[in-house]
Amino acid sequence: MDIATLVRPRSIDEAYEYVTEKGAMLLGGGAWSRTSSRRVEIAVDLAALDLRYIRATGDRIEIGAMATARDIETSELLERSFGPAFREAVSHIVGVQLRNIISVGGTVAGRFGFSDLNTLLLALDAKIALHRTGEVEMQSFLMGRVPMPLLIEKIILGPGRAAFQSVRNTREDLPILNAAAAYTGGRWRLAVGSRPGPSRLAVEAAGLLGTASSPDEAEIRNAAEAASAELSFRTDIRATDAYRRKVCAVLVRRALMETAS
């Protein structure tokens, strides 16, 4: 990427004005944007805005937009609250050096179809706090229902429990498919990503589980098969759509069994 001018605002309002008034591009960690060959007249570095944190606020957990994948991987708060789900969702990302660069805000804003983290956040019914817009649902954001421009301040999670599963050719490769199951707000949510394409909820399949926090094996199996049938899949260089559909049922079942246990 060719950047003509790099600015580092001292406030979120200043950063937002660069985006809205001058058409500047926001930089997260820059892990993926740096691979682009595009020219950017003004890029905004958010590193000075105190957006790197993971903290509990009442019964909610807030993850600042500049928190890194490594911060998530090593967070004791996330581990206590959700078990190993967050660690497992980011630990596959190449190496520690890259996980120290990748930001949560950049990952969410990019709506990357291969993102493991976005799948888990979607399953947990995460809310995205946008500057001057307020909180929006992760699902609406991933489906492009949020008007531009935007500046993500933090990700907000309520109480719940979850599990994450994925399959890939090698441990550090991009996923062929990923899936997450979560029980939050008294209901089940099932999310599948890398179909390939942005993560999506299997709403009808989750509805088969009812509101019980511990569905039996038959209910889990039926919901997993239903998720595979409900969602759409495509073929790319990593796998065929038929293979992804078969794998989906397996990953969703495993995630459900782990969450329900």
Describe how the helices and strands are arranged:
Layout: E1 2-7, H1 12-22, E2 25-27, E3 39-45, E4 54-57, E5 60-64, H2 69-73, H3 76-82, H4 85-90, H5 96-99, H6 104-110, H7 116-123, E6 127-130, E7 134-137, H8 138-142, E8 152-157, E9 161-167, E10 177-184, E11 187-193, E12 200-201, H9 203-207, H10 217-230, H11 241-260
Helix pairs in contact: 10-11
Main sheet: which strands, in order across?
4-5-8-6-7
> Could you name the CATH class of the largest domain?
Alpha Beta
Residue ranges: pLDDT <50 for 5 or more in a row? none
Percent of residues in β-strands: 15-25%
The helix/strand series, from N terminus to C terminus, equals: EHEEEEHHHHHHEEHEEEEEHHH
Radius of gyration: 18 Å
The average pLDDT score comes to 92
Q: What structural class should be given to the helix and strand makeup?
A: alpha+beta
Overall body shape: globular
| SS element count, helices | 11
Major beta sheet summary: 5 strands, antiparallel
Give the strand tally. Answer: 12
Percent helix, as a range, is 25-40%
Question: How far is it from the N-terminal to the C-terminal residue, by CA?
Answer: 47 Å
Number of domains: 2
The CATH fourth-level homologous superfamily of the largest domain: CO dehydrogenase flavoprotein, C-terminal domain
CATH architecture of the largest domain: 2-Layer Sandwich
